[in-house]
Amino acid sequence: MPRRPRLSLPNVPLHLIQRGNNRQAGFYADEDYRRYLEWLDEYAATTGCRVHAYVLMTNHVHLLVSARRAEAPGEMMKALGQRYVQYINRTYRRSGSLWEGRYRSCPTQTDGYLLTCQRYIELNPVRAAMVEHPADYPWSSYRANAQGEPSTLVVPHEVFEALGRDALERQAAYRELFRHALDPGLVDEIRRATNGNFAFGTGLFGAQVATALGRRAIPGKPGRPRRPP
């Protein structure tokens, strides 16, 4: 069965995840994380992508990006993947693929959903029991978004900018969102949308994405379609 084309639209945030091949590690040392972020910053700039949130886990990566061109996220991930895999293979004297063949992704509605997706991304190390608080994990965008740590990579989305009148107010409002854990149902919904290449948002948002792209953007009903009478 052919793979469904990715759902990508200009200026619509895209949550994407790339996993290690057979769930193997993609990062082995601190230098690996630093190199990945350095090149992510470089290729985001050259392709015109804005990175709103990220987390680098041991064997997978989450990004929340938007771009004026629908093709830009794919171009960024291709260039980044080629360079990073060459670096890993050369450094650790290995060969073969490092990541799964395709990253998984879902367009994300801005109002009411974008900040939920950002929290989902930055809370990954907490859900994995690697740290007790997202600020304790060095390889995510939490410190930039919530604590104002300087970053040339992270570009706040307009929804984030609307949290306050200045940077300190926005950071405080964003930190307040982390006082409570994400609802498990929302976590499942984000995973289902990302793994299935569906829209993450309201039914109306899913219908709008489907109309814009001319293909299905929400999960179908299980079972075989009923025959007409």
TrEMBL record:
Q: Which GO terms describe its molecular function?
A: DNA binding; transposase activity
Q: What biological-process GO terms show up in the record? A: DNA transposition
Q: Which Pfam families match?
A: Y1_Tnp
Report the superkingdom from the record: Bacteria
Gene3D superfamilies membership:
Transposase IS200-like
Transposase IS200-like domain sequence ranges? 9-124
Which PANTHER family is this protein grouped with? TRANSPOSASE IS200-LIKE DOMAIN-CONTAINING PROTEIN (PTHR34322:SF2), TRANSPOSASE, Y1_TNP DOMAIN-CONTAINING (PTHR34322)
This one is known as: Predicted transposase
Organism of provenance: Aromatoleum aromaticum (strain DSM 19018 / LMG 30748 / EbN1)
Q: Which gene encodes it?
A: tnp24
